[in-house]
Design a protein that fits this description.
heterodimer, A: about 120 residues, alpha+beta, Sufe protein. Chain: A, 3-stranded antiparallel β-sheet, 5 helices, about 45% helix, B: about 400 residues, alpha/beta, Aspartate Aminotransferase, domain 2, Aspartate Aminotransferase, domain 1, 2 domains, 7-stranded mixed β-sheet
Amino acid sequence: MYSTKVLDHLENPRNVGKMLEATAVGVASNPVCGDLLHLYVQISDEEITAASFQVKGCPPSIAAGSALTELITGLTVAAAQALKPADVTQALESLPPNKEHCAVLAIDALRAALAQAARL
Amino acid sequence: MTARKIYLDNSASTRVDDEVVQAMLPYFSEHYGNGSSTHQFGQHAKQAIEDARQQVALLLNAAPAEITFLSGGTESDNLAIKGIAAAYTERTQRKGHLITSQFEHPAVLTTCGVLEKEGWRVTYLPVYQAGLVRTEDVQAALTDDTALISIMHANNEIGTIQPLQEIAALIQTRREAGQKHLYLHTDAVQSVGKIPVDVKTLGVDLLTFTAHKLHGPKGIGALFVRKGVRLVSQMHGGHHERDRRAGTESVPLIAGLGKTAELARLHLTERAEHTRRLRDALETGLFDRLSGLSRNGDEHQRVPHIANLNFEHVEGEGLQISLDLKGVAVSTGSACSSGSQEPSHVLMALGLPRDNSYGSLRFSFSKDNTQEDVDYVLEILPAVVEKLRKLSPRLKLQATGR
């Protein structure tokens, strides 16, 4: 049902937890299923130097948050801004069609974090 | 995936008993006649069908003529509800009223929904936090044109046992007062073979059950229809099953159902005690090892083989998939499960919150499970829960709801 990548992120989620020294935090939620994602980013010289996440949600939401932290670490803010849900899905190999909203949740959290950083 | 394989989803389906498989085999390539044929090939098949009917009747304390074979629980529920409704309309030239509960199996709820579209009125009774229908609610819902009450015997997700005898007594009172054509149907798919199910003691007029929940094959079930109750057939064709269900009988499956019923009757007590011991050991062990844990539905009024537990601050599918990766098969009824984003209608009926501030798992046992299975789950599950809880942005555990 789920790809090996999704199961791997579920078993070994990367970059878990609250980041005390974060530059910005983005929060996204899905009102239908109640999934909630917190994304913490550390930005220096327009580059994302570290990212971490916390999530309350189903396996694809956990995997999407985990994969996103890997995707954005080392990216410029501009490059991160250009990321789309499909990039998260691709990083997970695939998501079942009814779970693609989990990749949207991750990108929503990223955009919220970047918007907060831009206001600083 | 580990080599370990532990199956704790026996309310979904069960392993077919070797004895049941053996009982079916002769009817594939040896006694392959049609049960309606008058030659010896046909009569062999017919004998197998009637032997099976006898076994099912013995299991339910019914008469063989009151047993109709069909494809399973869903068809049985459909025939019971639509068949009684159609008979009511034939008699009165009107659509009437049905009573059911909010947490019935979809086979009942969807069928009631179809009748509603056709002009029937349906009352969906609440089941409250305990997961139990209240007889006074049935009493209050009854009207002069109520044709059928369909209330499950044991709920398939949480296992709570409904007060059928009390409801049957209400019906009896109304019958004596002149409402002769008011009937009680129960979907007993999760209780037959798990607890004593006697159609006379329960006072039901129609009862649904299926083989594959008690170590029989899929695709075969039965409907008990008390003698004298008229229902209109929903499958048209030949004169099979006393004109109740047309279609050539699946002799191998019926023979399998007969053996399943026989074994269920002979081993009822020992299977019930075995599963209760394992189920209770699992619950006690988890309550000892985890906080933020509560039980769904009444602790006492329930079948012995089902445990349904809430884990705070984790989502059910994450638990279920993590357990599956470690070789343990269970099911979840919480949000986002099984392709739907809608939470389980059973858990919603209990009043649980819609968000996934909790995850629910159903563990369902069978005679084939062992104490080692329970020990393994107790060894791995607390760590899985803690790991998933650590991911959660809001970790504030409530007191344990034991």
